[in-house]
Task: inverse folding
């Protein structure tokens, strides 16, 4: 007999719950007359309650990671009166399987994990093909080859609630598409990048003017620099953008003198960057060399007076692996050149002791077959203390490492496509 009343023990995170709606859709398509209840943490209930497939949202009275056997036993016993015919447990923890067991639900479906034998009696083995979280959820769905299901989902909200909120925040009467291409915990919970690109293109083709991208997390770099010799600085760092790690050096070739016998300072900066992401369909990396890129810049600086400093910096960026495309004759063509030249112009104006106004402009020079980058303009404040250096600035660069910015920057400052960034440096003397 087909299940008539199903309890789903849902995930703890909002993003996972959004993906779980795919499972709810499949359940309802397979068993249209069934009742579907979802038990999940209280912070997910407003989301679950807006899913048309869910007949009842049950708030779990537990904090994240809390076991509390007594409460779980009491809740399970109270749910026994619901006469559920099946429970589907989406998370792999031992504690998540307790409530269906205490509720004496006859069929308790879930993955093997955390010694749940007896608590989960319809056990499904998670194989390596179930890489994405959404695929793992769907693996727990009912199986019926005669039922064709659509995975399209939607949420129910109050009439015009979302529209009114967007209009108040964005001050526009145009349609707005919000996309979230990031994922806090990696690619297993991330829609393929090409899907987002396709969604955006379809929206543009239909006449949508504004695309608002909402990223899961900010770009960050954690790095360490050390001066082993007077004129030499060595450093390394790692970014969450493309999971890149870099090694860099800065060497002072010339230093400006007070009598202007040497009128400028000249410094060489160079880095080597490696993309450490795992190979997948959207990352056609086949060897170590393909993962590497390089950047070098000659920084020519002059201190005009005690308050004003200027510098220019010609640079060369180089990528071993350059994304290509097929032309009308089905012949592969490069999207960008391997090498890219650019010029940077920067200025610093001291407002007070320890506080300075900083500005920068970066101009691409190399013209590529397509995918040409935009220039960058930024403005900010530099604040120094005895042990820290703080910088906060606004600009249209979207990444951190210079070769990424120089070659792949598509934010346009003429369209107010600015981002906010900051640097925090801790200074030590060993």
Result:
């Amino acid at each position: 007999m087909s299940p008539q009343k199903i309890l789903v023990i849902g995930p703890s995170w909002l993003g996972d719950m959004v993906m779980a709606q795919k499972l709810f859709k499949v359940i309802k398509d397979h068993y249209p007359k069934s009742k579907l209840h979802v038990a999940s943490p209280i912070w997910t209930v407003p989301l679950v309650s807006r899913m048309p497939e869910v007949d009842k949202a049950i708030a779990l009275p537990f904090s994240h990671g809390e076991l509390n056997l007594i409460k779980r036993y009491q809740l399970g016993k109270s749910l026994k009166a619901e006469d559920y015919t099946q429970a589907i447990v989406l998370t792999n923890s031992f504690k998540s399987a307790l409530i269906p067991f205490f509720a004496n639900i006859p069929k308790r479906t879930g993955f093997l994990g955390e010694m749940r034998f007896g608590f989960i009696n319809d056990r499904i083995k998670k194989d390596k093909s179930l890489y994405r979280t959404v695929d793992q959820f769907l693996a727990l769905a009912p199986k019926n080859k005669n039922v064709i299901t659509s995975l399209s989902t939607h949420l129910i909200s109050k009439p015009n609630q979302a529209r009114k909120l967007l209009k108040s925040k964005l001050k526009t009467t145009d349609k707005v598409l919000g996309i979230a291409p990031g994922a806090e915990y990696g690619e297993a919970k991330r829609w393929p990048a090409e899907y987002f690109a396709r969604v955006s293109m379809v929206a543009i083709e239909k006449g949508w003017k504004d695309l608002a991208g909402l990223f899961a997390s900010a770009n960050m770099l954690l790095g360490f620099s050390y001066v082993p010799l007077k004129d030499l600085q060595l450093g390394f760092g790692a970014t969450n953008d493309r999971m890149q790690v870099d090694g860099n050096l800065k060497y002072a070739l010339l230093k400006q003198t007070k009598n202007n016998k040497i009128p400028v300072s000249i410094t060489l900066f160079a880095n080597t960057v490696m993309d450490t992401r795992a190979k997948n369909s959207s990352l056609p990396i086949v060897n170590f060399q393909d993962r590497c890129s390089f950047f070098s810049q000659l920084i020519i600086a002059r201190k005009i007076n005690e308050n004003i400093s200027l510098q220019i910096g010609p640079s060369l960026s180089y990528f071993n692996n350059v994304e290509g495309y097929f032309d009308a004759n089905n012949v592969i063509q490069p999207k960008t050149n391997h090498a890219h030249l650019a010029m940077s112009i920067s200025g610093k104006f001291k407002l007070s002791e320890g506080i300075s106004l900083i500005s920068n402009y970066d101009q691409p020079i190399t013209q590529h077959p397509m995918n040409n980058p935009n220039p960058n303009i930024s403005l900010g404040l530099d604040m120094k203390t005895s042990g820290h250096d703080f910088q906060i600035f606004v600009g249209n660069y979207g990444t951190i490492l210079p070769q990424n910015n120089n070659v792949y920057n598509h934010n346009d400052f003429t369209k107010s496509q600015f981002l906010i960034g900051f640097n925090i440096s801790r200074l030590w003397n060993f």
Q: What stands out?
A: The chain has three domains: 5-139, 161-213, 221-426. The first strand starts at residue 5 and ends at 9.
